[in-house]
Structure formats: C-alpha cells, structure tokens
Design goal:
single chain; alpha+beta; elongated
Length: 98
C-alpha cells in the first residue's frame, strides 16, 4: 500500500527519473555483451578465474557509472543497482546466465 497521499506523485516520479540513468547504462552493457563476443568472453573468463577487479573494470568500460554490486557463479552473472542511502527509491537487478 502506498504510504503517501495517492494524489501526490512527486516521489514516485523522482524514483522513476533516478532509474533512467542506470537503466540506460544497463542497456548499453547488455548491448556490449550481446554484440561483442570478445567483451562477453573477457567477462566470463575473468569471472571463471574469480578476478572481481577485472570483472568490475570490464563492466565499467561498457559504460556503467551508477554504483552497483556484481555477483557471479557457474550459472551466470548479476548486477544490482541501488542508490546509496538509508531509503533508496529504486532498485534494479540484471541477471544473465552464461
């Protein structure tokens, strides 16, 4: 249930606006993975060797500037975008299988 007046959409709109940048960055990252096999291979190889710094560096080169956390396992990779602070207004998670 919304905790505020249903007629007040300011925070709702604010959250949507804050999500636009990470969503665009995520789209750019997915394009890099989808259409650049060398890039995809580099990330997968770095993850297989548990080289988190290399994985993060590669993700950054794909245009990700929004703070995120990354996780990977033999099944795939996940990126979680969430703004800092005690009361984030959005969260977006990307999960891709290898």
């Amino acid at each position: 249930m919304p905790t505020t007046d249903p007629g007040n959409v300011e925070q709702f709109q604010y959250a949507a606006k804050q999500l636009l940048t990470p969503a665009a960055e995520m789209h750019q990252f997915m394009n890099s993975v989808a259409f650049n096999p060398g890039f995809a291979k580099q990330i997968k190889e770095a993850a297989a060797q548990n080289k988190i710094q290399d994985v993060n560096r590669l993700i950054h080169t794909a245009g990700i500037r929004t703070p995120y956390t990354v996780g990977f396992n033999p099944n795939g990779i996940t990126l979680q975008f969430q703004p800092p602070g005690p009361s984030p207004c959005f969260s977006i998670r990307l999960a891709l299988c290898w």
